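Need fresh eyes. Consider my entry:
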Amino acid sequence: MLAGCATRPSPDVLKPVHLSQLTHAEEAPVSVNVLVATNRTPDSIRGGFGSAWADKLTYEQYGFSVPPGRKDTAITYPTERPDPERQFAVIGRKQLAKDAFVEEVLRSTQNEGTVGIFVHGYNYSYQEALFRTAQIAADANIPGSPILFSWPSAAAVAGYVADRDAALSSRSDLDSLVTSLSASGRVKRIILFGHSMGGFLVMETVRQLKLQHRDDVIGKLAVILAAPDIDIDVFRSQLNDIGRMPAPISLLVSKDDSALVASSFIAGERARVGRLDIDDPVIRDAALKERLRVIDITSIRASDGLGHDRYASLAKFGAQLASFESGKRSSAGDVGAYVFDAAGAAVASPFRLAGRVVGSN
């Protein structure tokens, strides 16, 4: 549930570092670009963005230096003199007008026609969400520039209710971002990837698009929800309003997610979607009925001690997930309950997607 218990990064980590300071590394760092759309209010003094809600979106572009040869998903933030072999660092930053932002998205998609938008969860500062997006982009080897949609989280452990209100208030801004990108014929597919409370915001935005009869936009969407912090009955209501989407919604779940246990407690012991048990026949039947992909990722190692950040480790298995999403590895079609399984030791044999409906073996 927590973004981190150690000292959290200040907006100072957003200051670009000159490349000349990064040339002493024995192995070249990885370079990635990240685009950002945020409805946070700019902090003109510290150069970042706070937790207050802005009345318009701000667009930015970042270049990152990512340490090579990393063994896990931990992010080491830059110091005054960053070490490129172990620290992430911003090497370029500029603010963009909306038209320039859209044009940069289109340029980075090249001939792929696929745009990826990451929506962070509860208790994230702007800089934490930005660096996490850079880590995911580097590990997944994503072509083009992924987009971070950063909503005004209070970035405080005690801010759960405030964050939920902020997420709800951000529906129209995420709607505006998705709609503006989908307007281009060069964009064929928009992957909306929401983590935790960000998954709630994603579902509310898709629901809003449906109520606006924007089937032209929904037709381009592929929704992936990682550890979604959504009440099960609320999720059912969202599905009823949205109806069947052209691309089935994917849920990445794990029964041992302690953060969602805490979220459930705060909500009066209401069950959360991110802790669905795919061994439950009721869940398997519901997945088929609602045309969902419910994928258990419990075998993926978490680094936060809570089992809530497995999505960050999943980035390196992007090719397997893409293959699975297309239905190529599933004998039962593209919906149902699945398990992302580990074949032996993780070091000797990397995680693979089992591509089977749980309970059918």
